[in-house]
Amino acid sequence: MNSSPFISMGQDLRFALRQLRRSPGFAATAVLTLGLAIGATVTIAGIAQRTLLAPLPYPDPDRLAGVAFTFPQESPNNEQAGSSADFLKEHSHSFASMGLAEDSIGGANLWVDSGNGGHAVQVTSKRIDHQYFPTLGLEPELGRGFTADEDHHGGPRSVLLSHNLWQSAFAGNPAVVGRVVHINGDSYTVTGVMPPSLKNQDESGRGTSTGVDMWLPLQLSPNDPGYAGDNYSMVARLKRGVGLQAAQQELDALKEPFYQQFPGYRGWTSHKLLHELRAWPLRDVEVSGVRPSLLALTGAVIAVLLIACLNLAGLMTARGLHRARELAVRSSLGATRGRLLRLLLCESSLIAVGGAGLGMLLTRAMTPALLAASPLTMPVMGKSNTGIILTISLGLAGMTALLGLVPAARILKEGSAESLRSRQTGVSRSGARLESTLIVMQIAMATVLLAASSLLLGSFLKLRSVDTGLKPQQLAIAQVTLKGDKYAKTLTTAQFVEEVTAQLSRYPGVKGVAAINGLPLDRGLNTGLGPAGKPDMNRIGELRLVTPKYFHTMGIPVVMGRDLRESDNANSAPVVLISAAAAQRWWPGRSPIGEQVNVGGKKEDRRTVVGVVADVRTQSLAESPRPMVYEPFTQATDGLTKVVNGWFPTTFAVKLGTHEDAAKMMEQAVATADPMIPVARIKTMQAVIDGTIKAPRFFSWMAGSFAGFALLLTAIGLFGLLSYQVSQRLREIGVRLAVGASREQVLRLFLGRGLVLTGTGLALGTMASLALPRLIGNLLAGFIFLDRGGPSVLLSSTVAAFAMAAAGMLATAFLASYLPAQRAAKTEPTLILRAE
Fold it and tell me: pTM to 2 decimals?
């Protein structure tokens, strides 16, 4: 009487489990390989799904667009100048509404009344116009948004709070609406609280995702310092029945009228290309900054997954061939083809389920770790889709389970008699060809990952070795925000800065104290600069306000002339120091001391050069030195002080001789000078430098991890293949040794076999890697500022990277091949022939 299918399946599962318990090395290797591959794949797939595929969290998201004033070759963005934004709002008819916002998040000082006098906290803020949230379809959960009157230049001071700030600073009190709060020392009226759905996210820099605590009215005006520059971002909602293509046609038609009204933009840059008015789906704008990086990570993960699958296929094929005689005997004794397939499917299914379970567990740990370490600004728009993630995991597990059917299919194709003969004589030609092909493919893909890892690591080390132009050792920095009416004047700003530096100088162990508005490798003011009387040489350069002893504190040498003095104040002749790059560009071959520099558009904005300092990197380690002008805090005009304080934090730098508590002394000094000014950021200068190369470090770490895993799998596969071939050819080896072959010849035979396979895969992988330099250069260029030379300046030597990849692969292959070859060479022919 035949047993039921369920009972028979249960018997097959128990038998498969016993078989795996008898081969713990194979089972553990297979499950771990599959688990790591599935874990990495599901992690990246989950992040990509939440970032690239989830719908925008706004009503009718398909009607939302990002509208930009941008170069034709730029990726989707919504950057706007104030003038182009005003022009579009007046002349465009394809959009139901258009909203504008600052394109960056700024710091703000909020005074929180705690009932015992209160305290100041640093929060983030962003200026938006009154149409910004309505365009997105967002409404406050309490109160109202901004009105057109509040958005006019000089209008009432109002503020919208985020849900998080409402809860943390105001205890979620509904009575906060209409309340007057103090921001940057000025009074603002709370008009509303935004809903928690608009949660804090990392700033994307291109779209609308923000980590904002409060919003202020934009109050856009041609008098704003940043009005003419691309310092804003625009979102728009299409009218019903109007498609994006029709809107783009209208924008194309508006290009020439815009340049007729604003002809100055024709010479805005040195490029021959003019800016265009472009519209993209807002989703494309949101993800354009991270799409290349996620695609690159996805490609690396897919390569690792393919290597893992090939490795598993090789392991299972070798295991199936090892069991070929067993299966052939079963077939000869009457086992049906279906029963044999089911038997092996049960075994591979157990491995697949174990690997999938391990992969899902690893995903729970890998996802938050990856998001925390990543330099990518992830505009995460939704929660992970459990269905998609589960489908991917089950799909990978199912694919792995099917690999177990390959050996059975081959045996059933050959027949039991042929299988028994092949077991007696060694490895069949077709079996050897299949296994060799799998290994060559693994080696090729591992070579690509090794080359990518070498390029990224070389780029990271190249950037790490760049001379920043300053000495960061024992240098701590603290930043404060000096916005508001109180610090719109040079006198009050200079007094605050002088008091803080004086307080810090009194602490024991302090070797130097200084302040600057625009820290190196951080943000600072770029404006038109050049030698006085030569307007044709005026170009965009970097202007910084500094205190005396700044260059001494930062370790920047004065190479010509003198340093700033305490006597360089509001009552003395205006002076500046310039960088070596500025001196070389403006007065090549002669001394600039005594010459004059324009730091503004008026004659009274001229400053006399009294010294030249060494170049420092201003925006990134990959840029060439830019012209820099350093002006004393005390000699800046009120207009310049207001602009600089409104856009950039003021940084205090302290050179420590001992391991003092820098954070405590900085907070005390700032609180003594003004208790309403909180310290926004305290860290070491080395941490600032390291932060600029976070992307190369992250990608080199990721690529190195993938390459290491791929290398390990390839070594396991090559070792397993050669070990299996040795075990199958023991009789042949014994005969060779018996008729006079030396052990060295046998060693070379199998070692050469492994190296031939490696050389073939290495050649294929190297050819596939030829596109890597361009891809990696473009990837890194999205994170590191480049002013000339293109992405290639970020890369180390391509030849050296490929040589390192080849050396790593050859060394691994030699080790993986040597052990089985040595085993073959040590074979005792008499024992083998006696057994036969």
Answer: 0.77
